[in-house]
Design a protein that fits this description.
The protein has helices spanning about 160-165, 180-185, 190-200, 215-225; strands at about 1-10, 15-25, 30-40, 50-60, 70-80, 85-95, 100-115, 115-125, 130, 135-140, 145-150, 175, 225-229. It is mainly beta. A hairpin with a 2-residue loop joins strand 2 and strand 3. It is globular, with a radius of gyration of 22 Å.
Length: about 230
């Protein structure tokens, strides 16, 4: 189990901020993200785009702009009205273990815009995250015995083993190509909503589905993992 906690001072440039204590805890293939506050400091009535919290592994700390790294976990949290905030946030998500190396973990708060997701605020966790799956060989010259010591981080399961332990995920439904019946089979989608979706397609992005009558941000967030374009 790996844990880390840091205090983030909110920025004001974008108006979308993280504040207070932010932390993560990794256990049993999942990560639990805790955030004291997520706020929209923009004018009242200025609704944000769809927000998401993401945990990234980077080769160096993040200081803004473009970056290269591995997304370890992420979750969409919907829109937030101006002058409103979410307090004592706790999100549990599947965790993607990075490869061998020393990584700098960064928690990012991102907002969906016409240009895609943009990082609005972030926090770098001070303690590096180190991964090593290579064994250390120790030779005992007196007894001629070789001991092999493995690192705490277990080697990822093979694809064959993963098939036995990981439940099969249903195929995502293409909103641009699926039949009316396939869309209606989605949990929370009535026949009328399915008809509305078919009449409004094609969509260029999943967030465009919000223009469909009867589809709100909460419903879209619930079905987002089960749909594609």
């Amino acid at each position: 189990m790996d844990t880390n906690l840091a205090l983030n001072e909110p920025t004001t440039e974008s108006g979308i901020t993280l504040a207070g204590n932010c932390g993560y805890e990794i256990q049993d293939g999942h990560v639990i993200i805790t955030i004291a506050e997520i706020a929209n400091n923009r004018d009242a009535g200025n609704i944000s785009g769809t927000l998401a919290v993401e945990l990234w592994a980077l080769p160096q700390p993040y200081w803004g702009g473009d970056f290269n790294g591995l997304a370890l976990a992420g979750k969409s949290i919907g829109e937030l009205y101006g002058q409103y905030f979410l307090a004592d946030c706790r999100y549990e998500m599947p965790f993607q273990q990075p490869g061998d190396g020393t990584w700098h973990l960064t928690l990012m708060l991102r907002e969906w815009t016409e240009a895609g997701y943009i990082t609005r605020d972030h926090i770098n966790f001070a303690v590096p995250y180190m991964v090593s799956t290579k064994p250390t060989v120790v030779r005992n010259d007196e007894s001629n015995i070789i001991n092999v010591i493995f690192a705490d981080n277990k080697k990822p399961p093979t694809a064959k083993a993963a098939k036995k332990t990981k439940p099969k995920q249903p195929a995502a439904v293409s909103l641009n190509q699926a039949s009316l019946e396939e869309i209606e089979a989605l949990k929370g989608i009535s026949k009328k909503l399915a008809e509305n979706i078919v009449s409004e397609r094609p969509f260029e992005s999943l967030d465009e589905v919000l223009k469909v009558k009867g589809i709100g941000s909460r419903l879209l967030d619930r079905i987002r993992q089960f749909i594609t374009l």
